[in-house]
Amino acid sequence: MTIDLEQRVFVAGHRGMVGSAIVRLLQAKGYQNIITATHAELDLCNQAAVNEFFINNQIDQVYLAAAKVGGIHANNTFPADFIYQNLMIEANIIHAAHQNDVQKLMFLGSSCIYPKFAQQPIKETELLTGILESTNEPYAIAKIAGIKLCESYNRQYGRDYRSVMPTNLYGPHDNFHAENSHVIPALLRRFHEAVKENTEEVVIWGSGKPMREFLHVDDMAAASVYVMELNDTVLKANTQPMLSHINVGTGVDCTIRELAETVARVTGFNGKLTFDATKPDGTPRKLMNISRLESLGWKASITLEEGLKDAYQWYLENIETVRA
What we know:
Elements: E1 8-12, H1 17-29, E2 33-35, H2 47-57, E3 61-64, H3 72-77, H4 79-99, E4 104-108, H5 137-157, E5 160-166, E6 168-170, H6 183-196, E7 201-205, E8 211-212, E9 214-216, H7 217-229, H8 232-237, E10 245-248, E11 254-255, H9 256-267, E12 272-276, E13 285-286, H10 291-295, H11 304-317, H12 319-323
Helix pairs in contact: 1-7, 2-4, 4-5, 6-9, 6-11, 9-11
Catalytic activity: GDP-beta-L-fucose + NADP(+) = GDP-4-dehydro-alpha-D-rhamnose + NADPH + H(+)
Family: Belongs to the NAD(P)-dependent epimerase/dehydratase family. Fucose synthase subfamily.
Keywords: Isomerase, Multifunctional enzyme, NADP, Oxidoreductase
């Protein structure tokens, strides 16, 4: 299949962790017309503004990486913000894409769409088979709606709107906020500060027993572009009826305790690790079944320790900005 590098490709959320990685990869592959817009230039929650943007830019393809994201604390504290903003962003972009005859779109979701006690490793068919994890249910419902929007426009209008569901992501341009970040940036920041301040102990939320799978954002970008560029015939031959999304992960998980120990090595922390079991653990285990993606010919290539070193180096180089 020949890739048209002249197509006008809109990357929504290009300043975020995933969006920026997709832009870097598209540039490296030689795409000539990558279209982006900052929040000041385009409010994705404004339907009229989004539609006007599509009309003015004559877009051919969309990577929908824009989203309001955060960790357990942020999801618990701002549930209305998480469900409203994510629903508006995806609905506005997907509908505007259809109205302006954009045939190809890639929606980036999240593994939190799956039930809290889904069978492990989690297959795509586990979607909507049980209750969601309560701490991030509003965000998860918004992401499920995004999948169903893509699926519905495909069914009703013959669009080619694809969805990929990544496991837990980390890497350059992550959110290192002291309270609202995910587990890896939170730990990198906390361990770095402990080393700098010569602290003897680092306290970590939860029991340390839950198991998580982590994917470096550059691998996520590679998988997203790979799936987007797949020939439609190849993709359909590998697709179960009514299955419109693909899991993206490494197929390998570890406990939060093991993760913390690895982060300690990467940051040079030699003190004591203490786990605060009074804090919520979230889902006991969340490992993606990635057999479908592997059968399509793609595998992750960045190991966890390798990826953590890269993320920590980026944090060190941008520490004044990200700490703010």
